[in-house]
């Protein structure tokens, strides 16, 4: 065998040893770096899990809050309905009372003991115009209306004239 063969074998041997040595050097810091990355990745993963848990807790809290708000809205709606019912009952009672007062006033106006001795009571819920027109409709003259309502005859004539 020729010495070139030994030189070539020696060269390959050196090449293999160098490759192994370089691979160890390169791999060795990577292992340390990979271990550090692994530790960072674990911390990051734990933070991510905590974040997911917090988001799930917030979602549950929001759902509970939505339910409570819906219940409150239902209660408020019921209260508003009750108030509307009470108001409509009160309104009808007030209208009935005003109607009764107007009837009493008309009866008093139709049957006075003397022409001006007995005052005619008119509901306070009516405007002055409505009071004048109501008394006129019941057949009282301008003088009687002005006396009952404490208005001038000119005002009474004007209101009656505007209504025609």
General description of the model:
84% of the residues lie in helices and 0% in strands. The protein is built from four helices and no strands. The radius of gyration is 52 Å and the shape is rod-shaped.
Which helices and strands appear, and what pairs or packs with what?
Elements: H1 3-110, H2 128-137, H3 142-149, H4 153-163
Helix pairs in contact: 2-3, 2-4, 3-4
Work out the strand percent: under 5%
Integer-rounded radius of gyration: 52 Å
The major pleated sheet works out as: none
Query: Tell me, what's the shape?
Result: rod-shaped
Span of the ends, CA to CA: 145 Å
Let me know the number of strands: 0
Uncertain stretches of 5 or more adjacent residues? 113-120
Helix content: over 70%
Instruction: Give the ordered list of helices and strands.
Output: HHHH
Mean pLDDT: 81
Assembly type of the chains comes to: single chain
The total count of helices amounts to 4
Q: Which class of secondary structure composition applies to the elements?
A: mainly alpha
Descriptive key words:
about 160 residues, 4 helices, about 85% helix, about 0% strand
Compact description:
This protein has 164 residues and is mostly helical. It has helices at residues 3-110, 128-137, 142-149, 153-163. Helix 2 runs antiparallel to helix 3, helix 2 packs across helix 4 (153-163) and helix 3 (142-149) packs across helix 4 (153-163).
């Amino acid at each position: 065998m020729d010495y070139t063969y030994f030189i070539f074998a020696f060269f390959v041997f050196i090449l293999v040893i160098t490759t192994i040595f370089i691979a160890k050097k390169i791999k060795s810091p990577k292992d340390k770096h990979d271990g550090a990355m692994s530790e960072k990745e674990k911390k990051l993963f734990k933070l991510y899990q905590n974040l997911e848990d917090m988001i799930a807790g917030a979602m549950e809290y929001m759902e509970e809050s939505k339910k409570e708000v819906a219940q409150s809205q239902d209660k408020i709606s019921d209260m508003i309905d009750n108030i509307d019912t009470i108001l409509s009952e009160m309104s009808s009672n007030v209208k009935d009372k005003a109607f009764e007062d107007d009837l009493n006033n008309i009866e008093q106006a139709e049957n006075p003991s003397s022409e001006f001795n007995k005052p005619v009571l008119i509901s306070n819920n009516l405007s002055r115009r409505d009071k004048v027109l109501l008394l006129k409709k019941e057949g009282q003259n301008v003088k009687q209306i002005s006396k009952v309502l404490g208005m001038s005859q000119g005002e009474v004539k004007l209101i009656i004239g505007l209504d025609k």
